Amino acid sequence: MKTALIAPSLLSANFAHLSDDIHIVQEAGADWLHFDVMDGHFVPNISFGLPVLKDIAACHNMVNDVHIMISNPKEFAKQFVEAGADYLTFHYEACQSDSEVFEIIDIIHKAGGKAGLSVKPETPISVVFPFLYSLDLVLIMSVEPGFGGQTFIADSLAKILRLRNYIDENELKTLIEVDGGINEETSRQCRKMGVDVLVAGSFVFGASDVKKAIEELKV
Hints:
With 219 residues, the protein is of the alpha/beta class. The chain is built from eight helices and eight strands, in the order βαβαβαβαββαβαβαα. Helices cover 36% and strands 20% of the residues. An eight-stranded parallel beta sheet has the order 1-8-7-6-5-4-3-2. α6 links the parallel β7 and β8 (197-200).
């Protein structure tokens, strides 16, 4: 079974003590830091944006894993990379055409970032296949995007496996990331399917022992 990289989601952190919470997960062994951007339009919630990312990006040594759930990713992609995103993931459903997806990927790469593409639970995973040779990461949403603390959608496991098989058969290096309802049990199921990166919010930030929680997700 694969050992996954762990990316705690700041959506479940204490916003009044972000710096403290970031330090805690870094010392506990987190690999990446997941930063959810919501515009209140593409998803029914508003989180945080460019100024917050810019401030936190320089205060830790983890990979800045930024997921933009916004209606106009093309307009803001370059700005988020410049603000500190190492990986910048946008939504397939927010784009009007395949050519726009490729254009945003190119914008991210030219700005110096790594490009990720995300799909909602109802979107077939096959839609990402045409882009895999250009992508660094695919993020499978295992809950409806917008709010933390939701229950893992079991159908996500088949999507992970299908994507894993396609990537391996074509000898690609694209990482598979999963976000939503990740805990000790679902992380194990996802790792069996071949996931590379696990995003976990409440399971990590709500744990009495953060280091133990992260270790449980990894192996």
